[in-house]
């Protein structure tokens, strides 16, 4: 079982580390550094607040990534609250009291209160299955890292490095979704 804290740390750290490594390595390559400095100087409007082009690019890319990560989290939370789709393990944590439902006589909808006897906080989490937060955040993180790698990192020596790195990040996100389904935390349609 992967704890949410570990997953969130990995989701935030992986693209950030790729951005740091990519920007620092591009900055120290002389031909790329000169083109970056020329590109970034056109953005400056005043002499009072000069930022190193390396620092400015790192802040820009990580800022856009963080904004997208928080926006994805907010929209996934809203979707989970609105849909209220139950997880596969809902009955295990709900521990319903079947004797108080009076469902032996008629086949009808039971609406006489809450019949769950389990922990309310765990039951609330078990009511939020669609869309899967872990899968959505991991695919956003992998897609952002893949787009960053393909659009900014230029390699002349190795043609296989970029596709392998992109495929590795996307496969990691895919494995996160498979992990959620295999641990019975989400349905296949939720991921």
TrEMBL record:
Gene Ontology MF annotations: phosphatidate phosphatase activity
Keyword Metal-binding: no
Keywords tagged on the record: Cell membrane, Cell projection, Glycoprotein, Membrane, Transmembrane, Transmembrane helix
GO BP term, example: phospholipid dephosphorylation
The organism's place on the tree of life at top rank: Eukaryota
Oxidoreductase keyword on record: no
Gene3D superfamilies xref list: Phosphatidic acid phosphatase type 2/haloperoxidase
Chief location of this protein within or outside the cell: membrane
Transmembrane segments annotated in the record for this chain: 6-29
Cellular component GO terms held in the UniProt record: neuron projection; plasma membrane
Record localization: Cell membrane; Cell projection, Neuron projection
Membrane topology category: Multi-pass membrane protein
All copies of domain Phosphatidic acid phosphatase type 2/haloperoxidase, residue ranges: 62-191
Function text: May play a role in neurite outgrowth and neurogenesis.
Family membership noted in the UniProt record: Belongs to the PA-phosphatase related phosphoesterase family.
Name this polypeptide is given: Phospholipid phosphatase-related protein type 1
Organism: Saimiri sciureus (Common squirrel monkey)
């Amino acid at each position: 079982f992967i704890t949410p804290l570990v997953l969130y740390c990995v989701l935030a750290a992986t693209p950030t580390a790729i951005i740091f490594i990519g920007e620092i390595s591009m900055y120290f390559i002389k031909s790329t550094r000169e083109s970056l400095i020329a590109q970034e100087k056109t953005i400056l409007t005043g002499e009072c607040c000069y930022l190193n082009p390396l620092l400015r690019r790192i802040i820009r890319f990580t800022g856009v990534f963080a904004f997208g990560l928080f926006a994805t989290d907010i929209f996934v939370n809203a979707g989970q609250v609105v849909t209220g789709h139950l997880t596969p393990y809902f009955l295990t944590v709900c521990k319903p009291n079947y004797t108080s439902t009076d469902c032996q006589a008629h086949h009808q909808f039971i609406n006489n209160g809450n019949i769950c006897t389990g922990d309310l906080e765990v039951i609330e989490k078990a009511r939020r299955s669609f869309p899967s937060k872990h899968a959505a955040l991991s695919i956003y993180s992998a897609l952002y890292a893949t787009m960053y790698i393909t659009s900014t990192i230029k390699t002349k020596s190795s043609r296989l490095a970029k596709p392998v790195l992109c495929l590795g990040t996307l496969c990691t996100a895919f494995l996160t979704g498979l992990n959620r389904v295999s641990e019975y935390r989400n349905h296949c349609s939720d991921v």
